[in-house]
Specification:
By secondary structure, this protein is mainly α. The chain has 20 helices and 4 strands. It comes from Halostagnicola kamekurae.
Length: about 450
């Protein structure tokens, strides 16, 4: 499939309408199943984070991950916010953001309104992923560099395409839904480190449901929502810097997803991994460290706004904090950002020795990191071009399984977690996804009346 002549909204609608499960490779299906495992895991853990808890409480949702009595719009917002609350969700270099938190939540939110199979869900995910990446490509990295949170601003289009596909909208309705979504894109990087950063994902997920449902009821959008003089690309960047294309091979198949190994900003991951390797290879005693230099990209400098974070959510966007935590405790985990650890005096003292430096020789949005540790016994240096968990060096099955249980043990019994994991890792084999409802696996029994995990 290749669409290069018609208006962008028409090309997108053609692609989404004509995509079928049979078009997907076995590797692509496996990638999507892993994305569901990963996203549902971090979403469950995110229910206990302030952002996830408050987003659920605002609408009275009960866990919200699969179904409850609330509207699909409210479910999508709550799930999306919880999914991104820990900053532990996956990445895509093709969109400069977090794709699955804008795809999995709206799909889960509309499941009760469909008779979809696991294959339908997977196909809808791919339709959404390819849509948001195709819209992103002509304006990255300028769009992100200008201050927009790409997860939200591109993710709203992915959410819309995914929901429109799952609800089986006609081609005309899909076209209108995507055009409507162009007036819903929002999210500023100035809100990084606050609860509003994960809310961006929730708002994008909700808008995808809203745009699709409006279109299904005859609502219309513009003909040149992207390429027009006042279209998305002109307003949210400086106009397209590369040619738009969709349908000429799948981005998901070529570049895949990057599953996170650490629950913090992705721009810290290569540096964290380099620090771990230096400690392991040289048995560095934290008490012997004089200075630590961390060199990475300008985009990392834009995103990592807190040299001296005051609250755990800011710590996720602090290079000094995560590197100091790695050196003092040996690992960055969910507990690194819990209040009892956040006040660790040894970590705070180590932060004073960490210097974060922009490497002007790197491309703006590079994810690499170089760590140089100077001690009384010598200087040790490690460079990592990529973080752990990339598509070509993915988290192993065991590592993903361990991450899933690290997240879910806080919220649901292991027996329930086992059932959810097995359902999601074999999603393509389910003829109906109604069995994925949280009630059917007993998750509701582990929740209080306010919907917060105990």
């Amino acid at each position: 499939m290749a669409y290069q002549e018609a208006a962008v909204v028409d090309q997108l609608a053609d692609f989404v309408a004509e995509l079928h499960f049979e078009d997907l490779s076995e590797d692509t299906v496996h990638t999507v199943e892993r994305a569901f495992v990963d996203t549902v895991g971090v979403a469950l853990a995110g229910l206990e984070e302030p952002a996830g808890e408050k987003a659920c409480a605002a609408f009275g949702t009960t866990a919200a991950l699969f179904s409850d009595v609330r509207s699909a719009n409210e479910r999508a917002l709550a799930i999306g916010t919880a999914s991104h609350a820990l900053d532990y969700d996956d990445l895509s270099w093709s969109m400069d953001g977090h794709p699955s938190v804008t795809l999995v939540p709206p799909l889960l939110a509309v499941i009760p309104e469909t008779v979809a199979s696991g294959r339908d869900i997977i196909t809808a995910f791919v339709a959404g992923y390819e849509t948001e990446c195709a819209i992103a490509y002509p304006v990255i990295p300028t769009h992100y560099k200008s201050g927009w949170h790409a997860t939200a601003t591109f993710g709203v289009f992915g959410a819309t395409a995914a929901v429109a596909k799952l609800l089986d909208l006609g081609r005309t309705e899909m076209r209108e839904a995507i055009a409507i979504a162009a007036s819903m894109a929002s999210g500023t990087k100035e809100n990084f480190g606050s609860m509003t950063k994960p809310l961006h994902a929730g708002l994008a997920a909700r808008s995808g449901v809203t745009a699709s449902k409006l279109a299904a009821n005859g609502f219309t959008g513009g003909d040149s929502a992207f390429e027009g003089d006042a279209g998305f690309w002109a307003l949210y960047a400086d106009g397209p810097e590369a040619e738009f294309s969709i349908g000429d091979g799948l981005q998901l198949e070529q570049y895949g997803l990057q599953l996170k190994a650490y629950p913090c900003c992705y721009f810290t991951h290569a540096s964290i991994a380099a620090t771990e390797e230096l400690q392991e290879n040289h048995s560095i005693d934290p008490n012997d460290i004089d200075t630590v230099e961390v060199l990475t990209s300008a985009a990392a400098d834009d995103a990592l706004q807190y040299d001296n974070p005051d609250v755990p959510s800011e710590g996720k966007f602090s290079m000094p904090y995560v590197i100091a935590s790695t050196l003092v405790t040996g690992r960055v985990t969910l507990s690194t950002f819990e209040p009892e650890h956040f006040g660790n005096e040894a970590v705070r003292e180590m932060m004073d020795r960490v210097e974060f430096i922009v490497d002007e020789n790197l491309p703006y949005n590079a994810n690499s990191g170089t760590v140089r540790i100077t001690t009384a016994n010598g200087t040790y240096e490690k460079h990592r071009k990529y973080p752990p968990g990339t598509y070509h060096d993915p988290l192993s099955k065991a590592e993903l399984h361990e991450k899933f249980y690290e997240c879910t043990e806080r919220v649901i019994p292991q027996e329930t977690a086992d059932a959810v994991y097995e359902q999601l890792v074999s999603l393509s084999e389910h003829s109906s996804v109604t069995g994925l409802a949280i009630e059917s696996t007993g998750c509701v029994e582990s929740l209080g009346d306010d919907g917060i995990g105990r």
